[in-house]
Every structure is written in structure tokens, then in C-alpha cells.
Amino acid sequence: MRYRHLIFCCIILAMFAPKAFCAEINFSPLFYVNSSEHELSVFGPILEITEEYTALRPIFCKESDHTDLIYPLGKITDTSLRISPFLKYERDEGEDEKSFNLFPFFYGKDPGKGYYGGVFPIYGTLKGRFGFDSATFAVWPIYSRTTIEEKNTYSLLWPIMTYSKDTKFKIFPIYGQQKENGSKSFYIVWPFFHHKETPDTHMNALLPFFSYEKGEHYKSISSPWPLFTYSKDFSASHKSIDCPWPLIRFASGAYEESRIFPVYWSRKSTNYKKKSILWPLYEKKYSEDTVFGGSTERTQILVLSGITRENMKSGEKIKTFDIWPFYRSRSEGAKSFWNIPNIIPYSEEDFSRNINRFIILMDHKKNGPCSEFDVLWHTFSHTKTESSKKSSLSFIFSCEEKDGKSRIGFLNRLVRFSGDCSNVDN
């Protein structure tokens, strides 16, 4: 009730105060409005309206191209709607493709295969979904049929019984076999006995006692699996030994690796380097992107703290510095920011807009000569541009320098001083 009265008073003051005063009303963190910047916030990050987004957290956050609903559960775009795990709608107008799921009902259309639908798990048909050309089920998992390239696979009490003519037969876990593309494999009393043959490899295993795999250019033997393993690749002059996995490993040839985990771990190849000492105390990684170019170097202290340097193919450099859970900074060309605290070191845009706005209590942003410093959602702020500076402490105090003049205000500038501060303007 007190907060409602306070907000009401702010609105009355905005209506009757001088025109210059109306540009900004600051009772942060309870209420803040800046008409020149088209910005409004109520109760800190709960309600925010800016030029970039409108948010009533945690209910929704609307941006120009999408709206998040109870992030990360829901999302709305021009062509899709999702509220996990119950509702999902997608359409592709160019391909005449659409799908609608409102559990347990589903419906859709595949451009090449037509319409489909059903009620899960009672009965339904799918087309062009989950990697299948089509799929049909009845009282799933009692019965289902999937089709890929005109080959049907039938399942009873999935995944226990599976059958596909000339390719697959399985009564899990007693026996299973599969033949496909020149390869064949079978198991008996899974996971104990396995056999697999391909045009290039041959494998037999009686787990966990023994595993042996041999190819045209390599061989691998393990006993007991997977603790002690010796592998050799003749074509790459590479060999490795685990004794026992995953604690101790040595490899040489195509890449060099020495691991005595967690005391020491190093690995080096053409495009990748890694060194770890007393993991998770210290770890350093370097990798080169062979597809898009550039490189990344990451030094980690206790996993979540450290420095990341990214060198892009364009020559741009990006640096991220984390001291978990207290501090994070990032610089990218002329742009940079830092924030306190750093409880979740993740800066994806949707996550930052919906979650980090609650978590971050202090932040600083810079873009060339312009910068902005904020504490507790405008309670204290300092902004700087090429031609002006401005600082404010909620409704208590504000100071602005612009066009060679200085202005000081108290009580949301109801009391103001300008110039040499010798005059009072009410």
C-alpha cells in the first residue's frame, strides 16, 4: 500500500512539476522514468519499458523479433509459439510446413508427405519428424512402426522387441542383431557380449572382461574394459595407453597426451593445446577454428573463473574475465562491460534480459566515448557522452554537465542550482 501511494505521488509530481523536470523522475529502485530516453522501470527489474524491449518479469519480455514467456519455458516469434513442455507451434510459410502440439494432442503438415496428427500415447502418425519419413504408434510403447527410405521397423513394448525385415531383430536385453550398409553386429545378454563387423573393422567384446577391435590400419585391446586399454593407429603412427582410464593416459603420434588426473594433464595437436595442473585449480586451453578461422585461448581457475581471449578472423579481439561468483568483464573492440556479481557466468542476450537483470546489482557499459554506470537499477547512476556527464542518487541528488554548464538538483530537481550554483531555481 505504501508503494502504491509513492508511485501515485510520482505521477502527480510529473504532471505539475516544471517542464524540465518532466524529462526524468527518479525514485529508484521503486520507480524510474526518463521520457527523453523512452525508459520506464517499476520495482527495479520487475517492470521495464525501453526502446529495445518491454518486460514484466518473470512473466514476459518482449523484443522486436520475439517474446519470452516465463523464460526459458516459453517463446513467441512470428512463426512459432512454445510453452514447454506442453505447447508448441511452428510454421514455415515458404515450405508450407507446420506443426502443432498441445499435449497429448499433436497435428502438422509436411510439405512432401502431407498431413499427420494424433493423441499421444493412444494413437497417431508423424511425417518428416524425428529423422523418420513416417512413424505410427498405437498405445505407445506397446506398438510403433517407423519408416526410413521405404524400410519399415516395428516395435512391440519399445525398446524390448524390434524387427525390420533383413536388417534388424532385437529382444532386449537377451539378443539383438543388425545388418546395414555392409555392416553387421549382434549382442547376447546386453551389455556383456558384442560382435561387430564393418568393411574396415572387426570388434569382439565380453564386457567388462575383454574388448578387442581391429581395422585395416589400427587395433585396440582392453582388459578389463574400459580401465586398461592399448591402441595403435599404424597410418598415423599413433599409439595410446590408458592405465587405468580415465585417470592415467599417455599418447603419442597424431597428438601428444599425458594425463595423471587430477595432478597433471597435457594434450597437444596441430590446432589444439591443453594443460591442466591440480584440476580444477588450473587449466589452460588453446584452439584454432579450422572452418571459420581465428583462435580461442581460455585460462581457467576453479572452472568458472579465468580469462578468455578470442582472436577473430577479421582481426577483432574479444576478452572475457571472470571471478566467480563476484565479477565479470568483457571487451569487444570499442565496446566493453563489467558487472557485479557474477553468479551465473553466462551472457547470452535472452538470458541476460530475463535472468541477469535480477541478479546483477552493479554494472558498467562503455561504447567508445560513451559510458553508463548503474547500481541497483538506477538507484545510483553515472552516464557520460561526448558532450555531457550526468550522475544521480535516486530522488535525493543529481548533477549534470552539458554545453559548458553545470546543474545540480535535489529532490528530483525540485530544488535546482545552475551555473556557479549561486542561484536557486524553484
Uncertain ranges: 11-22, 421-426
Q: Assign the structural class, choosing from mainly alpha, mainly beta, alpha/beta, alpha+beta, or little secondary structure.
A: mainly beta
Q: What's the tally of helices?
A: 2
Binned strand content: over 45%
The pLDDT mean sits at: 90
CA-based shape? flat
Helix content: under 10%
Computed Rg: 31 Å
Largest sheet: 44 strands, antiparallel
Number of strands: 44
Q: Ends: how far apart?
A: 30 Å
Task: Summarize the topology.
Elements (H helix, E strand, L loop, with lengths): L1 H15 L7 E4 L3 E4 L4 E4 L4 E3 L3 E4 L3 E4 L3 E3 L4 E3 L3 E4 L3 E6 L4 E6 L2 E6 L3 E6 L3 E5 L6 E5 L4 E6 L2 E6 L4 E4 L3 E4 L3 E6 L2 E6 L4 E5 L3 E6 L3 E6 L2 E5 L6 E5 L4 E5 L5 E5 L3 E5 L3 E5 L3 E6 L4 E7 L6 E7 L3 E7 L5 E7 L3 E6 L2 E6 L8 H11 L2 E6 L2 E6 L4 E5 L3 E6 L3 E6 L2 E6 L4 E4 L8
Antiparallel strand pairs: 1-2, 2-3, 3-4, 4-5, 5-6, 6-7, 7-8, 8-9, 9-10, 10-11, 11-12, 12-13, 13-14, 14-15, 15-16, 16-17, 17-18, 18-19, 19-20, 20-21, 21-22, 22-23, 23-24, 24-25, 25-26, 26-27, 27-28, 28-29, 29-30, 30-31, 31-32, 32-33, 33-34, 34-35, 35-36, 36-37, 37-38, 38-39, 39-40, 40-41, ...
